[in-house]
Amino acid sequence: MTSSKKPLSDPQSWNPATQLVHGGTMRSQWGETSEGLFLTQGFVYDNAEQAEARFKNEDPGYQYSRFGNPTVSMFEERLRLLEGADDCRATATGMAAVTAAILSYLNTGDHIVSARALFGSCRYVVEDLCPRFGIGSTLIDGNDLDAWKAAMQPNTKAVFFETPANPTLDIVDIAAVAEIAHDAGALVMVDNVFATPLLQRPLQHGADVVIYSATKHIDGQGRCLGGAVLGSETYINDHLHTFLRQTGPSMSPFNAWVMLKSLETLPVRVNAQCATASAIADRLAELPAIKSVLYPGRKDHPQAKLAAKQMSAGGQVVTFEVDGNKDATFRFLNALSIISISNNLGDAKSLVTHPATTTHQRLKPEARAELGISDGMIRLSVGLEDADDLIADLSAASAAV
Ligand SMILES: *Cc1c(COP(=O)(O)O)cnc(C)c1O
């Protein structure tokens, strides 16, 4: 099933699974099947004239791997095709991507509005770092469209949010927020980690910039750190490009190579993880020790309709609350045999996190309460294990509460 009438030789006409296997591949003179790993810092020139031309941007080749590298370019192009963006830049980590996306665009005197339900380090960038450089920031409840409207100021240059948000899986209405932001002249930046580039296309809903921690589902097997920023040619060329070149948070060619291979299996992994996550969410909801289950793919999610509108599946993360205090919740976590306690997500291995004492520990108790992060809350990142085994593990832990 092809989505357009473009010729089959054009990668834009391919469906995602094909783009993720073949997109962006550049072969060297050796004709290798698997993408080459160009683990090199620099590049040599045929002659002094070519070096001069390259520095003048009149010759398209590579100069130095902080600026660009063929393996990294292949990764960027593969992800760009999938996202349907004009351009993509890879970064060393997801936080390098978030920081560069924001700081390359905003200046002293500007203002950013953000949903307050954010990954801890993202919240630091918006709440603490931006103000240190004279960029005002306002954090609001991302579900409240009136709050978005009220937060807009004449100097608001960007809005930033995650959807689904970590760890509560709150959904932000991308199209509605984009309309409000665009009316105010602000750029819309979406951290799309939880949805993955397969389940949600923020650009199609009006976003301008999409940001990934490639450390999560894109690597997908808990190995390399990485990040990516995607957006329009203007945004990348006029803002991000020079910032990244000169400040240097480049993705290592080795990591780009690992992630290129990972992208090939992204649909297989994410689809399997979503199916298991959905089965687990339904089972958890039946366990007596579990007070509540938050999963965007379930009908009882407070924003199930909105989730269905902008996501093609519920995702790979299930958040739930143990019916009890911190001790009871720790008993649940400590009783797990297959599922490990960790703070990562999007791995082939299933991982659980207790946000209140780890990822969101830095927040004051009132701030946690405002986000709905209780002492009983557990975030489960569903891996690639057998669903029955995971359900058995969770049921046994539930009995230990
Ligand atoms: C992990 C994560 C990040 C940061 O990514 P790193 O690769 O760890 O730097 C940012 N946003 C979200 C939503 C994340 O889950």
Structural class of the secondary structure composition? alpha/beta
Hey, roughly how much beta strand do the residues contain? 5-15%
The CATH topology of the largest domain is given as Aspartate Aminotransferase, domain 2
Rg: 22 Å
Give the total of domains: 2
Give the N-to-C terminal Cα separation: 49 Å
Q: What is the level 1 CATH name of the largest domain?
A: Alpha Beta
What is the global morphology? globular
Could you say what the CATH architecture of the largest domain is?
3-Layer(aba) Sandwich
- What is the N-to-C order of secondary-structure elements (H for helix, E for strand)? HHHEHEHEHEHEHEEHHEHEHEEHEH
Question: Residue ranges: pLDDT <50 for 5 or more in a row?
Answer: none
How many β-strand stretches?
Answer: 12
Strand order of the largest sheet: 1-7-6-5-4-2-3
Q: What proportion of the residues is helical, as a percent range?
A: 25-40%
Q: What is the mean pLDDT?
A: 96
Describe it.
- The chain has 401 residues and is of the alpha/beta class.
- It folds into 2 domains: 14-263, Type I PLP-dependent aspartate aminotransferase-like (Major domain) (Aspartate Aminotransferase, domain 2); 266-400, Aspartate Aminotransferase, domain 1 (Alpha-Beta Complex).
- The protein is 39% helix and 14% strand.
- The chain contains 14 helices and 12 strands.
- It has helices at residues 16-22, 48-55, 70-83, 94-103, 120-132, 145-151, 174-183, 196-199, 233-247, 253-284, 304-310, 326-334, 365-371, 387-400, and strands at residues 87-91, 111-115, 136-140, 156-162, 187-191, 209-213, 227-231, 290-294, 317-322, 340-341, 351-353, 377-381.
- The strands form 2 sheets. The protein has a 7-stranded mixed beta sheet, with helices on both faces.
- Helix 1 (16-22) runs antiparallel to helix 3 and helix 3 runs parallel beside helix 10 (253-284).
- The longest helix is centred in the last third of the chain and has 32 residues, at 253-284.
- It is globular and about 75 Å long.
- The model has no long low-confidence stretch (mean pLDDT 96).
- The chain binds pyridoxal-5'-phosphate.
- The site of pyridoxal-5'-phosphate has 16 residues, from helix 4 and helix 5.
